[in-house]
Design a protein that fits this description.
This protein is mainly alpha-helical. The protein contains 5 helices and 5 strands; from the N terminus they run βαβααβααββ.
Length: 134
């Protein structure tokens, strides 16, 4: 499974461990570190955050991921030939980090856990999306 940044922030704030079978995309690592700085997290939270980075595999952005990234971005904007957006779903520009997070979940065929709606339109593209309460 893959956790979106918002869920890991929630776990770190509460000092809760996460599932034992997870990977963390590198954009999530960057977002978490930036959030820690901007939120002035104390030493305990930063140590806990770093322990998550040591506990789970971190997934780098690689050449293999770029093809899926291009497809997800094109699909999200309604411009992927042969894969139109479903009726009633409008095109959107996803945040670049969200694109990489979704790409990683699709590449590894893993569930993406999140609390927000940024990935909802990708269910029709094959994303296994698990929504949690904020």
């Amino acid at each position: 499974m893959i956790f979106d940044t918002n869920l890991l922030i929630k776990h770190i704030r509460k000092g809760q461990n996460v599932a034992s079978r997870a990977i963390i995309p590198m954009p999530v690592v960057g977002e978490l570190k930036a959030f820690a700085i901007k939120s002035d997290w104390g030493v305990q939270k930063v140590i806990f955050m770093n322990s998550l980075f040591n506990m789970f595999p971190l997934v780098e952005i690689t050449e293999e991921l770029t093809e899926i990234y291009a497809q997800v971005d094109s699909y999200s904007q309604g411009k992927l030939k042969g894969s139109p957006l479903p009726l009633g779903v409008s095109s959107r520009n996803m945040g670049k980090n969200d694109l990489w997070i979704a790409t990683t979940a699709l590449y590894f065929d893993m569930e993406l856990h999140t609390t927000d709606n940024d990935f909802d339109h990708l269910i029709n593209f094959g994303l296994k999306l698990i929504k949690h309460q904020p």
